[in-house]
Batch of 4 targets.
Target 1
Amino acid sequence: MPLDNHAEFRLSITKALGDQLAAALEALTPAPLTEENINSLPRHKGVYQLYQHGEPVYIGKAEVALGQRLRKHLKKLSGRMNIQLEWMSFKALSVDEDFAAVAPEKLLIDKFQEDGQAPWNENGFGINDPGVERDTTVFGEDHFDQIYPANLNWVIRDLPQGPQSLRAVLKFAKATLPYTFRYAYYRTNRESFYDQFEVAIGQSEMTANEFFRFVSSQLPEEWQIMVLPGYAVMYPRELRSRSARKHYIAGQEIAEYWFKCDDCDGTGTVNVPDGPDDSVAVPVKCPDCNGIGAWEGEEGDEGKGYVRVPN
């Protein structure tokens, strides 16, 4: 039986802090996401919001300096398709160092996601290099990298010209590209492997697409560059992923398509050289029943199936 002289009281300090943080951000005016506005920020730790078309899409924290973190986002977004930097703006709050222990960005994420906001906090935007174990992951249609894939027409400027080692060229591109370019040995003492390849660059600018094709032409044929939705990798082995957009092998651009065997329903992949023709037919072999056939379709298709022919 309820008592008239007793009740339960629950104090939610975290909810109160989340409400205060949200109110403090609400009082601010979003500024365009530009280098100039980022440079105007104090070198403080804190939390920030990214806005697209005036709607909050991402909440993050800066453990070193707000400007450092926002500058990384600016660079990343500059190299994506289907988005323009003019659409982006931000707000930022300096947060007391002791306050960081309560994870202020988590409080804000919970607060805004209650209203269906901050979708980029759930779709992979904040991930840097996902690591080699994720290279075969099938990216969902709502993943950030699928919605805003890496722009292969992004221009690498001020390339070092003249004869030089491939190692120097790779390090320059890795630091310049606005998305991850991971390649074998770059973090080990075997990075000197690339010193044996002397290359000569005769132009100061290349698109990422041209650069990957150039690099693949300088390496033995077992080396492959695979472009995934949001980044690129390069290793001396066959690279396969259902999410792959393109491969570069020995200077050729090759698109990878999946097919389904009409005879046994087995699935596999086929590499289709990119070319000027609108349609292509490539011989394939079903990995399940070993039937020989051909992948037929147009470049850009997922695949038109697998046609069985007599062995």
Note: Helices lie at 13-26, 35-39, 66-78, 104-113, 144-147, 166-176, 208-218.
Target 2
Amino acid sequence: MHIYSFFQHIISPMNMAMKQFATKHSYIKPRFVTKFTYTMQIMEEKPNTYLKGRGSQFNPNNRFNQFQYAQDHIEGLDEEFISQEKTEIIYTHPKTIINKVDSPDIGLSYSLNPYQGCEHGCIYCYARNTHEYWGFSAGLDFERKIIVKRNVVEAMRKQFSNKNWKAMPIMLSGNTDCYQPIERKLEITRNILQTCLKFRHPVGVITKNSLITRDIDVLKELAALNLVHVMISITGTDEDTRLLLEPRTASYKKRFSVLKELSDNGIRCGVMVAPIIPGINNHEIPAVIEMAAANGATSAGYTIVRLNGAIGGLFKDWLGKNYPDRADKVWNQICECHGGDVNDSRYGVRMRGEGKIAESIRQLFTVSKNKFMKDVPPAKLDSSLFDHRAAESQLSLF
């Protein structure tokens, strides 16, 4: 029997008897009974409701749903909402897989995302909002309902084989991490890289997972033809912060070692210090760039956090639970970077922000990059080798 239930079973009748006695005999002060009752209340064990290993702590409402689940009066429920669900894999077969990127902030023409949703659980991830288009929530659903595009390679081959297709670098992935945990089993990203190699198509990769080293063999062949560039996302050096901010990602130490392994194998790589969150990790910019450069990174980039859509509420909840002492300060500094709001969708400023705090971050990044990285020209991948007939393997023999 639960210890509180045990005491309640014994003490409750005594408590009731004492209250009745106090009512009958007015000379007994009520506060004596009140104190006794309070003493028993504080013996109740409070469960730890923080979901370890998850970035978000709840499922916000999906803006597209007509009806919503509510937890306003949980004391009236017969059983609790399930909060520790296992990750669910959902397969889909899209007709097209390569997306044209119109944003001038990105720097690449196309993106390809084999997965929707991400088990890494980064609380700040801007891709969370895309889960609402699938009928799910941007919160816990984003982390534990992973949509897998099963026919990625077939769709790529069909698109690459079109004689009108013009090869330009494809970003893998611009939305969710292509090396998230399920990739270890499915190997879709590896197959994508092999397809790019076969067609001699340029590709850029960004990830925060050390699983990328599994595909060093394919990446080396792509690098030899100047067809690949890799960015490793590293937001700091403090592991305690990472466990809260990006709970299911590779450790920072491991990510720096990934840079070294890529560099040692002739694969051009850089570091993405993103996102920068004022009051959380902005002070770590110099250390990240210095360590990245020491491990072979030749380029660096950064963005300032912006909390669009449902991410604002998720992040504010996370901030209050993990950094209650500075939650208001951090929130206000983010707002200061985006004209008084936590999000600014304007091209040209949404990634870097504006104002004094944004400018101080830009200066710190620039000084750090100039100090620790050589003046290496940006990677320009080769699109001239592309062969749309590569799938016709039999014809290629003649």
Note: The beta strands are 88-92, 98-100, 110-112, 115-116, 145-149, 170-172, 203-207, 228-233, 269-276, 300-304.
Target 3
Amino acid sequence: MPIKETAKIWHNGKLINWSDATLHVMSHVVNYGSCVFEGIRAYQLPSGPAIFRAQEHMQRLIDSAHVYRMELPYTRQELVDAMLDLVAVNETSPCYIRPLVLRGYGDLGVNPMNSPIEIYMANYEWGNFLASGAQEGPVGIDACVSTWTRIAPNTLPAMAKAGANYMNSQLIKMEATVNGFAEGIALDKNGYVSEGPGANLFLVRKGKLITAPIGNSVLPGITRDSVITMAQDLGVEVIEQVIPREMLYIAEELFFCGTGAEITPVKSVDRISVGGGNVGPVTRTIYDEYFGIVKGTKADRFNWLTPVPVAEVVGA
């Protein structure tokens, strides 16, 4: 999906023109991938635009930066407020929001600590990256188990949403794409199910909703947490457990979840049908609940949505 430009990008406390958000080719991040980021969605409700789980996303950004010794000069609330201002001034909703913390132009050795820390935020139109065109309701995709293993513990920290981690994700995604699948599923270093290249994974077995624990090289997804919360509230038993590969083939239902993927059912794995290729009842319930909340047709009973105020924006 080509990026659709908006008017402004937030950079280090100021709103700048989209075309002015540039980096030198010798910046540390360009050479070594030294950045952490977030993916966040704003949805259009009948009452106006609102950002989904803004506080939780910004806390994860701060946590990711902290792991890489990148201390930010802004509080979580200040970053949330900046994001609200950005969405308001660009008047783009629904939209995807990309906060990015990076090491800029300074020293070029492996040691990043003498390169300045810069913070950017952009927002733009972006749909579900796993969906195929316009669609109403959940539609399943074909997935495969990747030959590439998810990053191992104590190598790159999986709990940090760092740009460098997504080189591994690119290998998984490219392999799936060239082999005719919509998405790949990575196993961890012990051969157990981990996650997709950019989304967490849930399966249904004997009516129970199962997902891999964080220790299986899994990003602690905000949407993952939302699915667990919704399922438990709806009376569905949720289990975090080690998942052997073969459980993917005998699962009654399977779906990806994430900011980009939202709730995306999987209809087959390695050409083996999941649930007869149909969207199962648990997946459909979670899908309907999620989109009901983010589109305003169901009550926001978990207080996940932060309205975007229509007001004069400071720093333009």
Note: DSSP finds seven helices and 17 strands in the chain.
Target 4
Amino acid sequence: MKRLVQQFILINLILAGVLTACSQDAVKKVYTKSDVKLNKFSWSGNVPEKKKVVVVNEYGNITTRSSKQGNIMLSGVIQLVGPDAPEPEVKTFEQSGVLHIEVLYKSDTQDAHGNRIARMDMGVYVPENVSLEIKTSFGDIKAKKHQSNIVASSDSGKIKLASRGTISAQTNSGAISAHVLKWEGERFGPRNKKKQYQLNSQSGEIDIYYDADTLIDIKASSGVQIKSDSPSVKKLIEASSTPVLEITQQESTRLLTAHSGQNTVTIHVKESASSSVSTPSSFEGDVRDLPKTEEWKPGDPIIEMQDGRSDDENSSTDSEQENTKKRGISRKKKDD
């Protein structure tokens, strides 16, 4: 009988220990800015033979724009949250005349509770005649004032592209914003052939921007609605009984196809300065009632490309550090 009592007490002690461990594991760790360490990354290389670069970063944002430098440049920030955060590996290699850049992690970038403990946000700078293919998972993709062809895809990140070359964007749930910029000449594709633009989001919004004098054909469809701020485009939308729009222009040099399965497609047409008159407006509300900016949290993106960066190889360091300080995060060198 005494032995049975001892066994019963031992079993209860073991169960108590297991329950204590489980309860401790169930408490989700809340990281603060003091848990964050930032490492800087940079790389430069020659333009590949086929003047094409493929960038894959499944662990953060990718921002890109054209550069006046004659080579390919990468610049990024590696974010480490907590003591167990893994370091990334950035692979660069040329294959069949195409430069490939890929961010890899050997261990999980989220802890047991789903907190993001590691990420890398990257800037990619290429000469004007180099085309890009970019892929992320949850991260956003942004191309500012680009000069060449861009293909972008993301599972859930937002895609915002502005280029003089062709644009292709694909995302499952993210929004797409495409700015069709004017170009000079026929340097981005075969002559006498329309340049193809393709935008597709399963559930995200799509916004298309172009100037009124741009010679472009539009084929847009939506599972919800098509909208526009242009009176002429509104008439075409109202004349259609379904959320499908087709715009055809004589001597068009481009064809843009856009589809959102579960959201709105909006077409923004910028009128020329001679045909549009801006009306002064004023804000009469209380600025205290405006939505507040969401506070930065560990695991959020922390890098934003500076406008002067593409023109000056060394111009961004000071502003980048200043932005980091404003967010209350201390930058530490990688060797610390």
Note: Residues 33-183+190-271+299-326 form one domain.
